[in-house]
Amino acid sequence: MSADTYPPTDRTTPTRLRERVGYDRAAVHAVLDEATLCHVGFVVDGRPVVLPQLHVRVGDDLYLHGSTGARSLRTAADDGLEVCVTVTLVDGLVLARSAFHHSVNYRSVVAQGRAALVRDDAEKTAVLEALVEAVVPGRAAGTRGPDRRELAATAVLRLPLREVSLKVRTGPPGDDPDDLDLPHWAGVLPLAVHRGTPRPAPELADAPLPAHVQAWVDAG
Amino acid sequence: MSADTYPPTDRTTPTRLRERVGYDRAAVHAVLDEATLCHVGFVVDGRPVVLPQLHVRVGDDLYLHGSTGARSLRTAADDGLEVCVTVTLVDGLVLARSAFHHSVNYRSVVAQGRAALVRDDAEKTAVLEALVEAVVPGRAAGTRGPDRRELAATAVLRLPLREVSLKVRTGPPGDDPDDLDLPHWAGVLPLAVHRGTPRPAPELADAPLPAHVQAWVDAG
């Protein structure tokens, strides 16, 4: 899996707006790594279910985190679970002269395949550490790792990244030439995730921020 | 449908963490209205597909916007499409003393049911206006409305809000009592969507901002 792109398949080839879709591995990874959470779709009794979940990418595997009580993860216990994992970052609102060309600037990854429950305790421990690191770099060393009971109560699914696509809309509105002289404002209203001031747990109101939390603030 | 809560069903009753789940209509509506986009799950050939889409709530109907070329909307043309629409707002990263209690503060709505294609042109026109208003209040009057060709090229799905739940995590980390004396920092790192400076279309670099765009900036 050292190719620079994910090979397109029938399911990842769009029927429209093909110019917005790509398969570049580094770009896919960047979107997965930037997002706080993903939306995981699976099928229960023939009907779709979509739930937000925490994820972390390790190489070309995407790991999903849940409780052993969660329905998706119980279903996956036997022979895996067919999932569609979608991650979307919103970059701006696109205001065109025409209502029709209103849009959103975004980057969205769709990864499809069969996710398997991670049964190996060493792999699970490594993934949980990666998950904590994905939340805040440096955090794994600043927390108590899972004990045996906690490890047993946590379920982790592994989805190998194989059928993956990235859809991106960027740039100014795409108005029809005939509309350019209309007296309507057009442009992009940028949106971004903003990092606020850390709120310590009540018992730690006067404690100094550790270096990894200060670094999170400074990178915001 | 004037009740204050959505009646719980088997599908919207959680098997765990019940204290985080609610059915309050106003709270559900507030989350749907605040979110820029939703994730729509549906089933294709027995497998899940999850795509980001724009949405707007009008009363107790949730409308989804797409192109007539989109696979989900073509599938819905006949007798509707079973969907799960999930909207998630991320409010913060929750850092606990233990890795196990790391979490995210969020508000997430899950709405399930059968979505139907809107065929009535008057309803479709009203929904498209509401969609533009949902992007930026006041915008519908500041843009050219859809002509017949654009209306025909736009597909809108209506999902009546019936099976709906809201899941919320809020507040400080929930560490085990035994962990409170560990030398690890704990607290919440707030996240919020930040509104940036409007970027006019290239032809409008020197045009003044219209009132509805200035109001969007001021409300950020």
Automatic annotation (TrEMBL), chains A, B:
InterPro entries: Pyridox_Oxase-rel, Split_barrel_FMN-bd. Coiled coil: none annotated. Gene3D superfamilies: Electron Transport, Fmn-binding Protein, Chain A. This is Nitroimidazol reductase NimA-like FMN-containing flavoprotein (Pyridoxamine 5'-phosphate oxidase superfamily). It comes from Microlunatus capsulatus.
